[in-house]
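Go through the following before class.
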Amino acid sequence: MPPPPPSDASPQRSAIGVRDVAALARVSPTTVSNVLSGNRPVSAATRERVHWAIDQLGYRPNLSARNLRLRRAGLIAVAVPEIDILYFAELTRHVVQAARESGYTVLIDQTEGRLEAERFVLSGMNPGTVDGVLFSPLGIERHEFDNRRGGTPLVLLGERITGTGVDHVAIDNVAAAADATAYLLGRGRRRVAALGHQEPRGGGTAPRRTEGYRRALQAAGVPYDPSLVVHTPSYHRRDGALAMAAALDRGARPDAVFCYTDLLALGAIHTLHERGLRVPEDVAVIGIDDIDDGRYSNPTLTTIAPDKAEIARTALGLLLDRIADGGRGARQVVAAHRLEVRRSA
């Protein structure tokens, strides 16, 4: 017979339960259960303490039993237009991390902005397959929400579609664009181009960023020049490169460029280099999104950085609240953003 373990040996993982976690975190077992299930709101500090205790003890809840008891799938969906747009990839990574801490697995859906795909998401996908959906719409219009009653819990990400009665999390796109443009103007630039305008569609992120751009010009006493505003069909690097080339070819002669996304900015920098223009000496460039690629571009990219981790945690918290209590009124949350100064502007 093998000798008994020493008295100070760690308990076996299978023997660790909710009460052990509660004791180490100095909370009640009910609080631990609420953190794991999302049934009730828990403060960020308490949630962090509980997850610290879980990590210390190596506790693994029986999620299958919990989901069966609560009649839940244990899955939430994240529906975005394109998963290879780095902003959405990085945001989804934060959602996956936050969801895992609450005992949920994430299903990722790419809509490509197609109306039929977004209608499928709006309908709740396959009822019973997922417990809730985080949804970043692109093509769907506000009136599509009018006939939505109950169904799978839903939280909107990205630009607000007003009057939907659905929870929503986004940055203030007007303020973010104004901050980016004001920074360029504050550096002495006076011919600031704007790359990424689009006509209103769905939530209308692009028009709001154009509005912020114009507000900053007005505040600085700089006349608005429509020849400096360049439309792009989408927000890929190639679109930024072509838009920058179009602005230069029509003689716009900007001394700075505000790009509506970092990918557009990286494309614009590529064209400027090809045309023999120095960044930022000849043309300063700023974007929005703070994607990881911007830290390694040449030059490194100055950008407006949305707090993606905050957006993910807040949206997931709203969704878990909605799963636990579907009778709440709709909540609108504005997430923080900051200016991240690097070498491109």
Notes: Confidence is low (pLDDT under 50) at residues 1-14. Residues 3 and 9 are 13 Å apart (CA to CA). The radius of gyration is 24 Å.
